[in-house]
Each structure stands twice: as structure tokens, then as C-alpha cells.
Design goal:
By secondary structure, this protein is α/β, with parallel strands linked by helices. The protein has one domain: Rossmann fold, CATH 3.40.50. The chain has 14 helices and 9 strands. α13 packs antiparallel against α14.
């Protein structure tokens, strides 16, 4: 059941949908087949501001703020922000907004959520566009066990080096900073490791403010129990067409994890976004939007939309 609400700070005119005892904010634009955008960590529905208008010209584009993300109620101190409840939330959002089956577009943590939704609720999903989901549990536990590390080093040394580098240089120092109460240092360390130092510095102040406003969820994720299990067979079970999108300047661990997804998904394509890192939706939105529209046009059965996508790319 959706309702209207008004919030300041970039949330003017958003609506809300009831989800398992909470109200999640969302914004939508356009008509047609539903395309639902799921944001990553340290962000909210505002991270899709450069996608919604463009995709909304041809589709019913919906972006919602996940549980605990602004302007929704903050997570309580000490609560572990686990991923599977977000998968359940996504299923309820899709049904509650009559957006089934949906094309799901997920960035980072949101991409992992979308992948799990396709595995657990295949009837709700029409296609996937995944922007660098951090599927660490596909290659090892989080935190990793020594035997898993040795096995990965033997079988996939490049992936092992990339993941271990991220763990040692980003994840562990950021978690330690959160534990000692230095949220600014934790955010900076995490952002540098995921986005790159230069990319983080160049982000507009409004985007960095959005990250700071959602820092409680990042803290809960890094100090929590880690990602849910994900096996090769789980990924092979995905039957919907999937587009994997990476940034040309993205960190190695995200690229290696995308490599593994590319090997396992049955119906998959991949595209690299030039002049962009992990926040490609904001660094090169024109290329991201064109890639999404071209992919959707090939998988929605609409000749009109295929022609529109071809005209844009031309």
C-alpha cells in the first residue's frame, strides 16, 4: 500500500510503501514495464537521480530507499544490517507497487540484493543489470577462513590477491575505525578502497553528504556477521538475462568478482563504462543510461523501444 509523503533534503514529493512494519520511501517516473533501482551502501534513492528521468521516458522507473537508508528510520545502534532482510523487503516492494515482474538494476550492495532476489524469487524478476555487486561470499566466507584463502590462492590467484588486498587495506582498517568511534576515518578509508582516492575527492559535496547521512548502515554492515552464503550453483540457477556493468577505473577486487559472475551466469552480457569507477552512475551517467536502455530494449519485446535505443546509441 503506497502513500504520499514530503521530506526536505532532496526527498520532496517522495511516496512510501509499507514493508514488514516499516515505511520505505520511493520515487517513480514514467509508464510501462517496471524498472526498479536498488542502491548500494552509504546511499539512498537519491543516488539514482541521473537515471530516473532518462529511464522514465520509456519505462516505469522506480527508485526506493532500502530499510535504514534516508529518509527512512535509521538503524538502531548495535543492530547488524544483514542482507537477506533486504531481499525480502525488495520482494514486498515489488508486489506492493504492482511492479511484477520487474527489470532490476542494482548497484554494489544493491546489486547483490538483486542477484539474491533472482535466485530466491525468480517469478518477480524479468532481467538483471548488476553494477559491481561485492559477491565476496562467492569466493570465500566473510571473514575468510585460512583454508579458503589457501584454496583460492591455488585456484584463482588473481582473485585471491585482489580480495585479500581489499580485506587488508580497506575492510579491516575501516571496521577498526568504526570500533574506536572514528566514523570519518572509517568512511574515508572505505571510500578510498572502493572508489579510489581521486574519485572520492572529486565527488560533489552533495554526494559525500549523502554518504555521511547514511553512515550508520555502513557501520552496521562492516561490524556485522558478513554476507550471506552464495555458491556457484546458486549463480548458475539464475535464468533471467543479466547485464554486468563495470567501471574502467574500478578496484581490482570488484572486477575479479564480476569476472566470476560472468563465468557462472547462464545468460549474461558485460559492458565496461569508460572514464568511471565504482560510482559510474554519477561519473558517467550518460554511458550508464545508454547501456541500461539498450539492454532493456533487447529484453522487453518492444520494437519501438529497440528503435529508440538504437537511435540514442547512434
Amino acid at each position: 500500500m503506497a502513500s504520499d509523503t514530503t521530506r526536505a533534503g532532496g526527498f520532496e514529493g517522495v511516496q512510501s510503501v509499507a514493508v514488514d512494519g516499516s515505511a520505505l520511501a520511493y520515487r517513480e517516473q514514467g509508464e510501462g514495464d517496471p524498472v526498479v533501482f536498488v542502491h548500494g551502501s552509504s546511499s539512498d534513492l537519491r543516488s539514482w537521480e541521473q537515471q530516473l528521468p532518462e529511464i522514465g521516458r520509456s519505462y516505469r522507473a522506480i527508485a526506493y530507499s532500502r530499510r535504514y537508508a534516508r529518509p527512512n528510520r535509521d538503524i538502531d545502534p548495535g543492530v547488524d544490517d544483514q542482507m537477506l532482510p533486504h531481499v525480502n523487503d525488495l520482494a514486498i516492494v515489488l508486489r506492493g507497487l504492482d511492479a511484477v515482474p520487474a527489470h532490476l538494476v542494482g548497484h554494489s550492495w544493491g546489486g547483490f540484493i538483486c542477484l539474491l532476489a533472482a535466485i530466491r524469487h525468480p517469478e518477480l524478476v524479468r532481467s538483471l543489470v548488476l553494477l559491481e555487486p561485492p559477491v565476496l561470499s562467492l569466493v570465500m566466507s566473510t571473514p575468510p577462513r585460512p583454508a579458503e584463502v589457501l584454496k583460492l590462492l591455488v585456484r584463482r590467484p588473481r582473485t585471491a590477491r585482489a580480495v585479500l588486498g581489499f580485506t587488508a587495506l580497506t575492510y579491516l582498517p575501516a571496521a577498526a575505525a568504526f570500533r574506536r568511534g572514528d566514523d570519518d576515518a572509517a568512511m574515508e578509508r572505505f571510500a578510498h578502497g572502493v572508489l579510489g582516492r581521486d574519485t572520492y575527492v572529486r565527488l560533489p559535496e552533495a554526494r559525500r553528504r549523502q554518504a555521511r547521512e547514511n553512515i550508520a548502515t555502513l557501520r552496521a554492515q562492516l561490524l556485522g556477521a558478513g554476507f550471506p552464503p552464495l555458491s556457484d550453483d546458486d549463480v548458475r540457477s539464475v535464468r533471467v538475462p543479466t547485464l554486468l556493468m563495470t567501471g574502467a577505473r574500478s578496484p581490482a577486487f570488484l572486477l575479479r568478482l564480476t569476472d566470476r559472475l560472468h563465468q557462472l551466469l547462464p545468460d549474461v552480457e558485460r559492458i565496461e563504462i569508460a572514464a568511471a569507477s565504482h560510482v559510474m552512475t554519477e561519473e558517467n551517467p550518460r554511458a550508464v543510461n545508454a547501456a541500461i536502455l539498450a539492454y532493456l530494449a533487447r529484453h522487453d519485446g518492444s520494437e519501438r523501444l529497440r528503435q529508440q535505443a538504437a537511435a540514442r546509441s547512434g
